[in-house]
Amino acid sequence: METWPEGQRVRRQKNAELTLTRFADSEDHRPALMAAILRLAQGSRFARRYIRAFGGTKVDRVAEWEVPEADLVEARACEFYRRVHGVAGLRVLESWANIYRQGDYSMPHSHPGAAVSIVYFLDLGDPDPRDPISGQFAVFDPRVPACCRDQPDCLTNPFMPKLEPGTMILFPGWLVHGVNPYTGERPRITLTWNLAPA
Ligand SMILES: [Fe+2]
């Protein structure tokens, strides 16, 4: 599978510090990668259980898993950074998968030390008709008009981009973001990389 498919489109979110791209071939690696992450979460040396507010279960160090599908998506994340920021060399500071189960969420936070962070949405989990923003990734930025609908600079509405499985997003490490409490049954699975220039 190609690291960067021919004609892969990159889109900057209007008025927000987010750049997005979606891999149309993601179905080809999703089942194997999800199975590998769920297997590694079961007591491997990469697994860490966090409190609910820190995003549930994490599986660290993507490049050490020896899973070809994980190597592919890491190569894509690195290439995404190169293409958007024009860096020649880069360092992967940290990388991990997150498994959100019912009740897991991520409080607003940023990623200190990272020039950029990249999140790959492998499985968005189950939609909840009683809670349409369950498990949604959200940005908290008072400079974004959509976050301040009532009064400029007064943040009232987290910005939640439309995401699909196979979407990869890039944002500066300082950007405050979080994940709403997840209420579905199926695990919601994402991968994250914190990157910096070499
Ligand atoms: Fe984060």
Structure overview:
This protein has 2 helices and 11 strands; from the N terminus they run ββαββαβββββββ. By secondary structure, the chain is an alpha+beta fold. The strands form 2 sheets. It has an 8-stranded antiparallel β-sheet, covered by helices on one side. A 3-stranded antiparallel β-sheet has the order 6-10-8, with no helix packed on it. The structure holds fe (ii) ion (FE2). It comes from Hypericibacter adhaerens. Pfam families: 2OG-FeII_Oxy_5.
The helix tally amounts to 2
Assign an overall shape: globular
Q: How are the strands of the biggest sheet laid out side by side? A: 1-2-9-7-11-5-4-3
Radius of gyration: 16 Å
Q: What's the average pLDDT? A: 96
For the record, the CATH architecture stands as Sandwich
Order of helices and strands: EEHEEHEEEEEEE
Low-confidence stretches: none
Tell me the distance between the termini: 26 Å
Question: Class by helix and strand content?
Answer: alpha+beta
Q: For the record, what is the CATH homologous superfamily label?
A: q2cbj1_9rhob like domain
Provide the CATH top-level class.
Answer: Mainly Beta
Strand share of the residues? 25-35%
Ligand kinds = fe (ii) ion
Q: Which fold name corresponds to the CATH topology?
A: Jelly Rolls
Please estimate the helix content.
10-25%
Q: Domains counted in the coordinates: how many?
A: 1
- Give the strand tally: 11
Q: What summary fits the major beta sheet? A: 8 strands, antiparallel
